[in-house]
Amino acid sequence: MLNVPPQAFPAPGSQQRVAAGGRTKVPLKPGRSLMDWIRLTKSGKDLTGLKGRLIEVTEDELAKHNKKEDCWICIRGLVYNVTPYMEYHPGGEDELMKAAGTDGTDLFDQVRTTGSE
C-alpha cells in the first residue's frame, strides 16, 4: 500500500476554491451556458448596440443605463453594455444589477479576488 498523503481538492490557493461566504452561482436557464454565450459572441451579432462605433460615456449617460433591459457597467474606465449577458452571468442578474449604471470596478475586484483565496 502506498503512503500517499491525502490531498484536498481543489488545492488550497486554487482558483477553483471558493472562500467561506464567497461567490454564489445561480442555475441558468436552458440555452444560457458558457458555451452558449461563446457561440453568441462569435455569431457576428452586434451585442454592444452601437454598430461598431466607439463613444465617450459620461457619468450622467452611464447612470441612465441602470435597468435589466438596458444595463451598462464601467470597469476600470471602460463601459460595457452587459444587457445581452444578463441571462448568462453565473452569479445571476441580481449580481450584475449591483453595479448597473455605475462604476463597478470595486465590486468586480471583490468578487474576483474572493474566488482566488
Automatic annotation (TrEMBL):
Record keywords: Heme, Iron, Metal-binding
Cellular component aspect of the GO annotation: endoplasmic reticulum
Region named Disordered: 1-27
Protein name: Cytochrome b5 heme-binding domain-containing protein
Domain of life: Eukaryota
Family: Belongs to the cytochrome b5 family.
Gene3D superfamilies: Cytochrome b5-like heme/steroid binding domain (3.10.120.10)
Entry-linked InterPro entries: Cyt_B5-like_heme/steroid-bd, Cyt_B5-like_heme/steroid_sf, Cyt_B5_heme-BS, Cytochrome_b5/Flavoprotein_Rdt
SUPFAM superfamilies to which the protein is assigned, alphabetical: Cytochrome b5-like heme/steroid binding domain
Residue ranges annotated for the Cytochrome b5 heme-binding domain, each copy included: 54-117
GO function term, MF aspect, one: cytochrome-b5 reductase activity, acting on NAD(P)H
Biological process annotations from GO: superoxide metabolic process
Family matches, as PANTHER family: CYTOCHROME B5 REDUCTASE 4 (PTHR46237:SF1), CYTOCHROME B5 REDUCTASE 4 FAMILY MEMBER (PTHR46237)
Database matches in Pfam families: Cyt-b5
Originating organism: Bambusicola thoracicus
